[in-house]
Amino acid sequence: MTSGLRFCDLEAWQRWSARQGAVRALASRVRHASRPVPPPPAILSLPAEEPTALVVVDMLTSSCRAAVAAPVSRMNPRTTAVMSRIPEAVDMVKGGEQLAWRGTDGLPNSIDQVLTLGSYCELAGQVKPWCHSRDIRFVVAQHGLITPWAPPLADGDHFLAWSQSDAEYQTEGWSSVTVDVVGSQMMWEAAALPEAQVLDDRPVMLGQLHGIELGRVAEQRIYTGFCTQHGADYRPHPNEADILSRAQHGMMRRAGVHFETSGLPLAELGRPVVSIFSTGTLEAAQRGLPAWVYHPRPPDWIRDFWTRYGLSQLGSAPTAPPVLPDVEPATQVARIMEE
Questions:
Q1: How far apart are CA 182 and CA 308, in angstroms?
Q2: Whole-angstrom distance, CA of residue 185 vs CA of residue 333
Q3: pLDDT one digit per residue (tens) for the chain, 339 residues
Q4: 111: which residues sit within 8 A by CB, 6+ positions away?
């Protein structure tokens, strides 16, 4: 196995991430220059009684929902508070009051644990120093597959990992970080759904042009070559809506690549799934669809990634469904937050 994260210092990672996102940010400003939308206010939603746990919801994508929102429904509703800019997340708490977020001075002293996606996120980053100064456990839930460019943990974090190998990879070099292996709620929920049926043998290649791990030009060549050689359709990631991605889509179409734009979930689409390193490959395998990974000349970190998650290369047997824990991950997270 190769070494772990490229960055061990969060500030260094944030500077690097900002540089990598400069083009996407510029494209976004160009698209929305005439109608800038300020972020909604952050709200602290308090329960009926004094809260002992705070859940900070910075994002509510499907993976983030599984990681930090699903456990809320398993936690004590009378002692669990939520902070977020997302109305749906704020409304998960009933019976108390909702207050405008005015900084950590307004946080109840009764809180003894905080669940987050990590201090690289805006609101969680504001709460982290408050937790550190009061010796309050700051819990970070894994919400996706980990690449070498994932944001690092911070001093004193308690990491909730999907697997032991992920725990070792994410915490390498950290002596001040503690870990619980809880599994993936996202995979647990996928396994609970009916098995998908293959309706069409033509594969779908899952796009990741929006990512920062591989160069856009190199990825475009891989996607174009794979789709034209294997009769596959390209399925753009929802985040491939910026100007640069759309320009690349145009070049791919002119090269003969067909696009899958139905918007149907992969399980309903009923086609084999291929990606370079997308979470969708594991989700498809969990639902029973044939799923593989592909790269014509994979670098060492991608080979390590494939091994860590049990992803099968195209040409071999399909990826096996991930092994699930005995206890539902959201339930296990709730238990940890109420220890």
A1: 16
A2: 10
A3: 445 888 888 889 888 888 766 555 555 455 544 465 788 899 999 999 999 999 999 999 999 999 999 999 999 999 999 999 999 999 999 888 999 998 998 899 999 999 999 999 999 999 999 999 999 999 999 999 999 999 999 999 999 999 999 999 999 888 899 999 999 999 999 999 999 999 999 999 999 998 778 889 999 999 999 999 999 999 999 888 889 999 999 999 999 999 999 999 999 999 999 999 999 999 999 999 999 999 999 999 999 999 999 999 999 999 999 999 999 999 999 999 987
A4: 51, 52, 53, 54, 81, 136
Give, as one character, the DSSP assignment of residue 69. I
Residues shown for the chain: 339
The answer to whether residues 276 and 293 touch, using CB atoms and an 8 Å cutoff, is yes
Bridge partners for 83 per DSSP: 44, 56
Which of 274, 276, 270 shows the shortest CA–CA distance to 295?
276
Half-sphere exposure of 331 (CA within 13 A, CB side): 6
> What strands, in cross-sheet order, belong to the sheet with 291-293?
258-259, 233-235, 204-206, 273-275, 291-293
> Are the C-beta atoms of 64 and 89 separated by less than 8 Å?
no
Answer for the pair 213, 147: CB distance below 8 angstroms, yes or no. Answer: yes
Alpha carbons 115 and 54: distance in angstroms, whole number: 6
Tokens at residue 188, please?
A: 């647990």
Residue type, 113: Q
Burial 112-130, CB ≥16 within 10 A → b, else e: bbbbbbbbbbebbbbbbeb
| Residue 319, token pair as written in the block | 């990826």
Q: Give the C-alpha separation, 98 to 90, whole Å.
A: 8
